[in-house]
Design a protein that fits this description.
Structural class: mainly alpha
Number of strands: 0
Distance between the termini: 16 Å
Shape: elongated
Largest sheet: none
Oligomer: single chain
Order of helices and strands: HHHHHH
């Protein structure tokens, strides 16, 4: 009989990554909700941008939900989840950057970009360097091949 395959123990850094991924997703959802509520602002209505603002907010909410969903894949050491979360947090930073470029005087756009970029940077760095990367390497080896 073959020995049972043991999964490597999840390091504390990975727990922090999952928490940061959830935090990033929640921040994206909140930013999306704020954007959707901005459609009722008088300036947005006068400019005729209510539809675009609503779509932008919906995109942020979708990115946030997908980031939270991928957090569970990170706990299992799935490399595909690591790649997907990296792409999602990068997309979140790009969307926040575009929002900042479109509204450079808006303080909420600036803070969303600064906080989002800091959280995204921590997530990507922790997943792809050091113990985080080692966890994904060992989890890949521990996965039995069908």
């Amino acid at each position: 009989m073959s020995e049972p395959v043991r999964r490597p123990r999840m390091p504390k850094r990975m727990i922090a990554i999952v928490v940061l991924a959830y935090l990033s997703g929640i921040l994206d959802i909140l930013a999306g909700l704020v954007l959707i509520l901005l459609r009722y602002d008088d300036e947005v209505r006068r400019a005729g941008d209510a539809f675009a603002v609503t779509l932008w907010g919906a995109l942020m909410i979708l990115i946030g939900l997908l980031t939270i969903a991928m957090g569970s894949g990170l706990t299992r050491g799935r490399n595909s989840a690591r790649i997907f979360v990296t792409a999602l947090v990068s997309l979140s930073v790009i969307v926040s950057g575009v929002d900042l470029a479109l509204h450079p005087t808006d303080a909420s756009s600036l803070w969303t970009f600064v906080v989002g970029t800091a959280v995204a940077g921590l997530i990507v760095l922790a997943m792809w360097a050091g113990r985080g990367a080692a966890f994904f390497r060992h989890a890949r080896r521990a996965t039995p091949s069908s």
